[in-house]
Design a protein that fits this description.
The complex is a heterodimer of chains A (227) and B (404).
Chain A lengths: L1 E12 L6 E12 L3 E5 L6 H8 L7 E6 L2 E2 L5 H11 E4 L11 H11 L4 H14 L15 H13 L5 E5 L7 H18 L2 E5 L3 H6 L2 E6 L2 E7 L1
Parallel strand pairs in A: 3-8, 3-9, 6-7, 7-8
Antiparallel strand pairs in A: 1-2, 1-4, 4-5, 9-10
Chain B lengths: L1 H9 L3 H41 L2 E5 L2 H4 L6 E2 H9 L4 E16 L2 E10 L1 H8 L5 E4 L9 E4 H7 L6 E7 L5 E12 L4 H4 L2 E5 H8 L4 E2 L1 E6 L5 H11 L5 E5 H4 L1 H39 L1 H9 L4 H36 L2 E2 L2 H9 L5 E2 L5 H18 L1 H9 L2 H6 L1
Parallel strand pairs in B: 4-9, 6-8
Antiparallel strand pairs in B: 1-11, 1-12, 2-10, 3-4, 3-7, 3-11, 5-8, 6-9, 7-8, 13-14
Classes of the chains: A alpha/beta (227), B alpha+beta (404).
Chain lengths: 227, 404
Amino acid sequence: MAVITTKGVEKVYNPDKIPVKALKGVDLEIEAGEFTAIVGPSGSGKTTLLNIIGGLDRPTAGYVEVGGEDISQMSDNVLIDFRKQHIGFVFQAYNLIPVLTARENVEFVMLLQNRSKTERHARADELLKAVGLEDKVHKRPAELSGGQQQRVAVARALAPKPTFILADEPTANLDSESTANLLDIMARLNQEEGVTFVFSTHDQRVIDRARRVVTLVDGRVDEDLRR
Amino acid sequence: MLFKMAWRNIWRNRRRTFITAASILFAVLFASFMDSLQRGAWDNMINNVVNYYFGYVQVHQDGYWEEQSIDKAFPLADSLEQVGAVEGVEAVLPRLESFALAAAGETTSGVLVAGILPDVENRMTDLENRLVEGEYLTEGDEAVLVASGVAEKLGLALGDTLVLISQGYRGVNAAGKYPIRGIAKFGSPDLNKQMVYLPLQAAQYFYGAPGLATSLALKLGGQEDIKPVVAALRTQLDTSAYEVMDWEELLPDLVQARELDTAGNVIVYFILYMIIAFGIFGTILMMSKEREYEFGVLISIGLQRWQLALSVWIEVILLGVLGAVSGILLSMPIVCYFKVNPIRFGGEMASSLEKFGFEPIFPATFDLQIFLTQALYVFILTAVLALYPIFKIRKLQPVQAMRG
């Protein structure tokens, strides 16, 4: 069953001045439990596609369905709630809340979902253990290495049990060891817990681990390879 | 969690927080201190003028205060009992007052001669304690008690004779000479340069007005009794024959001067808080710009805009409260110190203040209301300034914000 469906998705920036077509009709279906990498050269539209799938940006034409719901038509506030319930984000620059500890960061979205304190604590501790940071629960982002911060970000994205996780260049700022470590964790979560991951990446190490690779060129799907 | 985030965010840039909070602190400190001192000076002046002579309420024959003529004197016995029975009135001070020319040798000076009942007068005005030389008057005396300014101007000392010349009741000639029994010093420079006290009976004889008084000054339990006492008297007395006036009606110039002075300070406070506002706004502006990326992330992961706006609003308010509370805590002991140890001016400064009718003593008033008012100003100021990031958050597009 398709978790994400995009149909004829187009995105034009600056439509009134100098129009730039970032996406030129992307049709894509991503099934539950997939471990998909969206690849392509710079400017091919990877991040734009990820933003549109994640409801952070709206398509100029076409639509996006997540779990059967058309998110392109949702109002801003409804979309924020939708993201909170269904989509986990891992960003290139970690993007943890600097004033909160690792555990508080992981708990944050669950708090917005009004989960009980006991449930939040238990889930946060479980996830931090899963990403190998059980001894860092009380550390703030500034006290963690880049790799550790990105693992906290993965734990945060997983915490509300989202339908899928979008990761935009998650290894771009990591060294080899941290990258391998992070990929191991994400692959394990994908295989053991069936979490759907969609990455945009340039990183060959990520591409090598992906089970599906969608290549974008000039805003179009050029190749869709399943392994 | 929003409050926790707001609180921790304040301390992300400690130096900036300290500088912003310190600017608020000094504004609150300066404004509270200035206000306390100003109110203290006015309270002291009003206390000197009202408590030490005029009383909070006076009763006269209708039209007396406008004309200030002894011809508007009224028989005492008629009204004294009725006025004294009103709830809140602690004592009734009958007086016969009129202006006269005081002379000693070749020097003369215009004075206000007040015929008083020495014992009753002392209960309100504590006149005996104001003596700097000599003795207090007694009922049957044929002597005067003069203010130090009068004695100084006329070059008189204790035991010397003071000559008084005036026009008495209904045009009779009034002239008399009286030994100086005592010299008193008043806080109010106005009173100090014109008061001459005679026992009531002697004054009635001097002005040819036996059994008459021009005013009844009332000693009340406190300021809160003014309104009910005035209302009760206006109901009970024949208002076509008598006028009942509170101190603000008796001394409109004093009230106006206070209002003018207070209004001047409002402008100073406005300028002060405008400067502070720019400081706080600078901090808010930098904070909003620096955290645009973070705001984008928070909205992306599911924080509603109103929740983010509330968190930032709490943050700015906390910053304001931090500065205001520190300002209040610091100003309280300072104000307290100057309440106990008033600022006393000397030399030329004292002379100029006296020329304007001010006693050269500035005690501070310790009133929680003053501090709370300053805190309220800061709260309103920060609450308004905090609307800026709220506006920015409302318009923020997460993708653009995270693009940097």
